[in-house]
Design goal:
The protein is about 35% helix and about 20% strand. With about 190 residues, the chain is an alpha/beta fold. It starts with a strand and ends with a strand.
Length: about 190
């Protein structure tokens, strides 16, 4: 089982797990004032997915671990190439994501970037992204290999399904990646 996670603030209720169940894509969203990280850990340990695609930085610029290999204290190569936010700007979220990966070290967790999945795989839908969720979800659903159980009613669910799709592509051998293994790789 492949899962996609839109990783949000720890207690804001904005973290969503997207996973296949009964031949449809299903969502589990965190609740406000509850620990999203614990929700993920509990769900993963109960369901043992084969691949987890996480929309959050899972590493820091290489200069923090090897000063002779890099000179950027803000961006990794993969961030620069995709014009993604700096893991340093995302600070606490990056630290939580790295800790989550360590706590779930027996599982395969990859970093993904839903916006790049959109840009690379569904560029013709960009005009609807973060504008019209019903239109975007309907058009996206037509092109996913598995349909939604219930149409997404927020963008966190949409992004988790784009994260899931990155994992699906990677599993099919048609996914792409950017970055350097020694510093960080983003799959899309």
């Amino acid at each position: 089982m492949i899962v996609g996670i839109d990783y949000g603030s720890k207690v804001a209720g904005t973290t969503v797990i997207c996973y296949p169940e009964n031949d449809t894509l299903t969502f589990l969203q965190s609740k406000k004032k509850e620990d999203a990280d614990q929700m993920i850990i509990d769900w993963v340990k109960e369901n043992s997915p084969s691949m987890i695609m996480l929309d959050a930085p899972l590493s820091l610029p290489i200069v923090y671990t090897d000063t002779s290999s890099g000179n950027s204290y803000h961006y990794r190569q993969c961030d620069r190439e995709l014009k993604a936010m700096s893991p340093m700007f995302l600070g606490g979220l990056t630290a939580r994501a790295m800790q989550l990966r360590a706590n779930l070290s027996e599982y395969t967790i990859y970093e993904t970037y839903p916006k790049q999945v959109l840009n690379h795989r569904f560029a013709d839908l960009k005009e609807f992204y973060k504008v019209d969720i019903e239109m975007f979800s309907a058009k996206l659903s037509e092109r996913l290999p598995i349909q939604y159980e219930v149409t997404p009613d927020n963008w966190h669910k949409v992004d988790s399904s784009l994260a899931w799709y990155a994992g699906y592509l990677h599993n099919q051998g048609t996914g792409e990646s950017v970055g350097d293994v020694s510093e960080g790789v983003i799959l899309y």
